[in-house]
Every structure is written in structure tokens, then in C-alpha cells.
Design a protein that fits this description.
The protein has 82 residues and is mainly alpha-helical. The chain has one domain. Helix content is 79%, strand content 0%. The chain is built from five helices and no strands. Helix 1 crosses helix 4 and helix 2 runs antiparallel to helix 4. This is DUF1232 domain-containing protein. It comes from Paraburkholderia tropica. Keywords: Membrane, Transmembrane, Transmembrane helix.
Length: 82
């Protein structure tokens, strides 16, 4: 249970940083398309068709990709968001 709470805390922080970065005029050019693709991937129709795959997908792949996106942001943008 502690690990799940820890993962949710990290995802919440990464989502906050990503939301801040998306609203900045000096954001990287790749950020908007990759955020849109990640959103589409998280809402993909196979989450409904294959529930087990959807749980694994939303619980593991999406948080890892979100964390990688935030890690690839410029350091100044990440510091300003935190």
C-alpha cells in the first residue's frame, strides 16, 4: 500500500510539472504533441475491450512515460514548476 501511495505522489507531482510546462511559452516543441499522444494512449479503446491490459497499461506504462517526459524537460522549466 505504501508503494501505491508513493507512486501516486510521484505521478501527481509529474502531472503538475507537465501542466505547468504546457502553459509556458518557452516549452520545447515536442512537449505538446507528446502530451497529446500520451493522453490518447491512456484513453485508448483497448482499455475497455481488454480490462487486464488496460489496468497494466494505466498503472505502469503511462506513469513511466509521464515521468520520462518530465525528466526530458529543460532543467530551468522543471525548477520553475516545483
Amino acid at each position: 500500500m505504501k508503494r501505491l501511495a508513493w507512486l501516486l505522489k510521484i505521478v501527481r507531482g509529474d502531472a503538475r510539472v507537465l501542466w505547468f510546462a504546457l502553459r509556458q511559452p518557452n516549452r520545447p516543441a515536442w512537449l505538446v504533441p507528446s502530451a497529446a499522444l500520451l493522453t490518447l494512449y491512456a484513453l485508448a479503446p483497448f482499455n475497455i475491450a481488454l480490462p487486464l491490459v488496460g489496468v497494466v497499461d494505466d498503472g505502469i506504462v503511462v506513469p513511466v512515460l509521464l515521468h520520462l517526459m518530465v525528466a526530458c524537460l529543460p532543467v530551468g522549466l522543471r525548477r520553475a514548476a516545483r
